[in-house]
Design a protein that fits this description.
With about 270 residues, this protein is of the alpha/beta class. The chain has ten helices and ten strands. A seven-stranded mixed β-sheet has the order 6-2-1-7-8-10-9. Strands 3-5-4 form a three-stranded antiparallel β-sheet. The relative contact order is 0.12.
């Protein structure tokens, strides 16, 4: 079992905060050891000081990528915070259908984890438009910092328990069995989601066009207040006028410091 000194923890936690936005408090020492000790063993690194040096010296980005995979929390499931999907169906999509002239609705699922959120959005959109979907481009950009979760998301294969919150009609329309108690997203729906690796801590974002909707749910709860505010400012910049930002129901933006209008819990709008 490895141990970590206060100095080592400070160095690593600052690296993690700067590069991934995640703020680790001192009581998370044990969690950090538990998630990283196998990396030290695998690479014959004797202690966390040497591991920190290893992170800084690696120019390939692989060491940082492995660290990101280990420290990010990827708890998600289909129809998580279902009220937001209802809001999309009842308010956001009708508004966009009546106002987006080029029939190009741009949606970003930031921090998409293993894909349940963007695939759920794709199902909501497909059901909402019905046969008119043929005339609309509604592809969803889904990003995460972790290669591991993105690889699972791209495969689109889930266990029967992971589908339990979905309506029966959706299970039949959007999934096909691929073995005992395993189901895969059907190809036509997979094609509606574009998965990319992306770090929300990038100093500047570069996209071709702004988005009509951004989902970034249960991500900023791990950030310090100033880090979260900077990210929200970037989201504001990359939202179309009238566009929506969805955050987790346990998250809230300070109204005095945000340019976004509060609509209901976890839903904000750029006016």
């Amino acid at each position: 079992m490895f141990d970590i000194s206060d100095k080592e923890f400070e160095l690593l936690s600052e690296y993690i905060r700067k590069n991934f936005g995640i703020h680790l408090k001192k009581e998370k020492k044990g969690l950090l050891i538990g998630r990283l000790q196998n990396i030290l063993i695998k690479n014959n690194i004797p202690n966390f000081s040497k591991y920190y040096e290893y992170l800084l010296s690696d120019k390939t980005g692989e060491a940082a990528s492995v660290l990101a995979n280990r420290i990010t929390t990827n708890h998600t499931y289909f129809m998580r915070e279902a009220a937001h999907m209802d809001y999309m169906k009842d308010h956001v999509l009708p508004y966009l259908k009546s106002t987006v002239e080029e029939r190009d609705i741009r949606i970003w699922s930031a921090g998409c984890s293993t894909g349940e959120e963007p695939y759920t959005l794709a199902m909501v959109i497909d059901e909402f438009f019905g046969s008119d979907k043929l005339f609309w481009d509604t592809k969803i950009l889904a990003t995460d910092i972790s290669d591991e979760v993105l690889n699972k998301a791209k495969k689109g294969i889930y266990g029967i328990e992971e589908l339990k919150e979905l309506p029966l009609g959706w299970k039949l329309n959007y999934f096909e069995p691929v073995g005992r108690d395993r189901f895969e997203i059907k190809p036509f729906l997979k094609d509606e989601v574009i998965f990319r690796k992306f770090n929300l801590m990038e100093e500047r974002f570069f996209f071709k066009k702004p988005f009509h909707v951004i989902f970034c749910k249960n991500v900023m709860i791990y950030f310090e207040e100033q880090t979260a505010k900077k990210l929200v400012d970037k989201f504001f910049h990359w939202l179309e006028p009238g566009g929506y930002l969805f955050v987790g129901l346990s998250e809230s933006l300070k109204r005095a410091s945000s340019s976004l209008k509060y609509m209901e819990p976890g839903v904000y709008r750029k006016e």
